[in-house]
Amino acid sequence: MKPMTAILIGAGDRGARAYAPYALGHPNELTIIGVADPNKERRTKIQLEHQISEEHCYESWEEILNQESKIADIAIICTLDRNHYKPTMKALELGYHVLLEKPMSPDPVECIAMEQGAKKYNRQLTIGHVLRYTEFWSTIKNIISKGEIGEVVSLQLNENVEVMHMSHSFVRGNWNNKDKSSPMILQKSCHDMDIISFVMGKDCKRISSYGSLMHFKEENAPLGAPKRCLEGCPAELECPFHAGRYYLGEGKGWAKKFTEDDSNEGIIKALNETPYGICVYHSDNDVVDHQVVNMEFEGGATATFSMCGFTREQTRIVQIMGTKGEIRGNMEENSISIFDFLSKQETVIKFDNPIGGHGGGDTGIMRTFLREIQYGNNEDSVSNASASVRSHLMAFAAEESRINHGQSINIDDFYTSLLENIKS
Fold it and tell me: Most buried of 73, 198, 267, 328 (most Cβ within 10 A)?
């Protein structure tokens, strides 16, 4: 079969390191033939890696989609959160199948409109909920579907963001301000709202949430701390977030995400010029550093979710309690255990080391996306737009509840009000 062709819109971390490499490893399945990104270095890197002609290298999504007809089969869209809607709608209109990085949009009305656009143009619109494609979560889903632990009564999921990841991405980084990107529950934890919905297999009916920004704010800055860490901070030796010590040491891998020159000189230059050198207590961040969400599903089952930026490891830990047994799992350890209440037997499953990021989900979503296009089962897609809209609404409702001091939100009423906004 002739490989499918794709254009990459947004050549940042997710586009260049998560999705585009699939084409290099599977040239019989996919070829990247065009790229759009305002950053010349990122654009050129993709051009050279994928041998893209100069005529198909563009600075903006408007340029690459400003054609009378499509130039490829697929558009992989990995722009920043608030730049998802317009290129997605234009790509669908031109006839592209679209793989869109999560979240769909910080605006729930735009999420619903994209779902409707995919149906209107009969195109595959898959959202980057990569956890669904991991062996870890797909195995849990299969165990529940087969009834091995009976009916699910309650689920608990902890997202340990890891303290330095929190400081890098959500205090100093692109997702530190909800008005510029998305609220934390949507940007980081829409994965979790989605995987909870996926595992439960039922509609969430009510939701409530609490959370805040407790630590990373001005009043907690060390006495005399300057705007930038390299300007002579008196707390350098006591502060775990000191940018110079971290990015020139154990965090050097993170430095590659904000500078192409990862020599000590290149990193120091970037720390003096980019937000990654700003003191974590003097940033313009406003997203929460911890949040809890309570959910009630159809039939009465419940779920609780906790996200916290103050953890020593980056992982997700889950406990699923059923009428016949229990599942426990830790993504960092890449293993789950199933306990049977009748036999008192515990079965431990240790998964092989995954290939690709997000526990193998980055590779899995690309493989599945291509096959779903070829075999035309848009409605049954593992993460089709309709399923993603439902889990996005959970995140939007959770944020609405958090802002309103934990007020319980009825998801059906919430969805109905959004549809009325679209009609009006």
Answer: 267
Summarize pLDDT for 258-270 with one digit per residue, the tens. 998 989 999 999 9
How much is the pTM? 0.89
Phi, psi of 320 (to 5 degrees): -120, 120
Crossing angle of the two packed helices 411-423 and 385-403, in degrees rounded to 10: 110
| Cβ atoms of residues 334 and 354 within 8 Å | yes
Length of the chain measured in residues = 424
d(CA 321, CA 328): 9
307-310 contact pairs (CB < 8 A, 24+): 307/158, 307/159, 307/161, 307/184, 307/185, 307/188, 307/189, 307/192, 307/211, 308/158, 308/159, 308/160, 308/161, 309/161, 309/162, 309/163, 309/165, 309/166, 309/167, 309/170, 310/163, 310/166, 310/215
Question: What's the whole-number mean pLDDT along residues 241-268?
Answer: 93
pLDDT above 90 coverage of the chain, percent: 85
Residues linked to residue 357 through DSSP beta bridges, in sequence order: none
